[in-house]
Design brief:
Oligomer: single chain
Strand order of the largest sheet: 2-4-5-7-6
Radius of gyration: 39 Å
Distance between the termini: 39 Å
Number of domains: 2
Number of strands: 7
Number of helices: 13
Helix content: 55-70%
Shape: rod-shaped
């Protein structure tokens, strides 16, 4: 792994983890706990040995509190530097991390001596303070006292660093989860937009062929169909910009499309559409019904000259909406791979509703059917509400 000085001295550890207020809050809360623990422990030990000796083996509580106050800035600087250094590459960062920990633990006893001097400053004369200071640094047990302090504060530093580091990693994890969720939403939106745009050229291609068939023998009828097609395309573009539409609007759009097809096949195509005034007041994915009807017309009329009846039904049962599109099948049913329209519907249902949105197709009693089942959405849906319907 290539490792540069610029990466080493960058502040990426803090920037990608937590802000300064969070960092200061966590460190101060941890150090307050350490301070209280040390004071309570020293008080307990002093009380326990009071019946043995009256000598001050442990520093008083105010000295210990001041010691921890003096050490707090050094602790914050060490933790900050540790987060900046990070832990990779380990062969280079580990010595730096150990140096920071040892440096902090090493100044703990000098901070204790400085606190003792500060507390006793108002209690003794200057010449007594000088004598007291000289006795501290000339004490033969100085090294032992310093080593005991070092051993005590080194684990405390390690626990505090683990706490801060854990908080940073947790926040990075939460941030990454939010970023992944945002990317998934954007990906789903882009995917649905692509699916909706996929319908426009497919529908236009079929309708233009329908109008072309009328130009030679019925020019005026073809002109009227062009006007109707323009109105249909306006509705198509408008619907393609929305994720959901009312079921009644979808039926009106489908009726316009079927009217164009019926003008080309007046003797062959029969339509049975539900009364829009009696339809349930629910919302459905935009353009979800049109490819099913188009599939029924195109495939129902193909390969024979007989009449075809296209039927559209919709009903609500409990929390589910069922839409059924059927067409009479004359002769052998159409075989082969699933067309673009049905694939489009199936994929959109999976993206928007997960396992709660399904499409079933098949042949039954000389009738080809396509049945869509999806949640019954009574109010105008939001993106968050639709995501809540999706089940893995």
């Amino acid at each position: 792994m290539q490792w540069t000085a610029q990466r080493f001295f960058s502040n990426g550890g803090i920037a990608r983890g937590m802000d300064m207020r969070q960092f200061v809050g966590i460190v101060c809360a941890f150090w307050l706990y350490v301070t209280i623990s040390d004071v309570v422990y020293a008080y307990g030990v002093r009380s326990g040995i009071a019946h043995v000796t009256t000598a001050e083996v442990f520093a008083s509580w105010d000295v210990r509190v001041l010691q921890h106050v003096l050490l707090l800035p050094a602790l914050m600087v060490s933790f900050w530097a540790s987060l900046i250094v990070e832990w990779r590459p380990l062969w280079l960062t580990l010595p730096i991390q150990l140096t920071l920990a040892c440096a902090f633990a090493a100044i703990a006893y000098p901070a204790m001596a400085l606190s003792q001097m500060a507390i006793n400053l108002g209690r003794h004369a200057p010449n007594e303070m000088a004598s007291h200071l000289a006795s501290i640094w000339s004490d033969p047990s100085l090294l032992s006292l310093w080593l005991a302090s070092f051993v005590t504060f080194l684990p405390a530093y390690g626990f505090g660093l683990a706490l801060v580091r854990g908080a940073v990693l947790y926040k990075r994890y939460r941030d990454s989860e939010l970023q992944v969720a945002a990317l998934e939403r954007e990906w789903s939106a882009a995917r649905l937009a692509a699916l909706r745009m996929q319908l426009s050229p497919h529908t236009l291609f079929n309708l233009l062929h329908t109008i072309r068939g009328n130009i030679e023998w019925d020019p005026r009828g073809a002109q009227a169909m062009v006007v109707q097609l323009a109105d249909l395309l306006r509705r198509l573009l408008s619907a393609g910009e929305r994720d959901f539409s009312r079921l009644t609007d979808e039926l009106q759009f489908v009726a316009m499309y079927l009217e164009l097809q019926q003008k080309r096949f007046p003797d062959r195509l029969r339509l049975l559409l539900p009364d829009t005034g009696r339809l349930p007041a629910v919302w459905v994915p935009s353009l979800i019904l049109q490819p099913l009807v188009e599939n029924a017309v195109v495939h129902g009329l193909a390969g024979h000259q007989g009449p075809v009846t296209v039927t559209v039904e919709a009903a609500v049962s409990g929390e589910n909406l069922t839409i059924r599109v059927t067409n009479t099948a004359v002769g052998l049913p159409r075989r082969g791979a699933e067309g673009i329209g049905l694939k489009n519907v199936r994929e959109r249902l999976a993206v928007q509703f997960g396992s709660r949105g399904t499409l079933q197709t098949g042949l039954q009693d000389q009738t080809w059917f396509a049945i869509v089942q999806l949640p019954s959405i009574q109010a105008a849906p939001t993106a968050a509400g639709v995501r809540g319907m999706v089940t893995p």
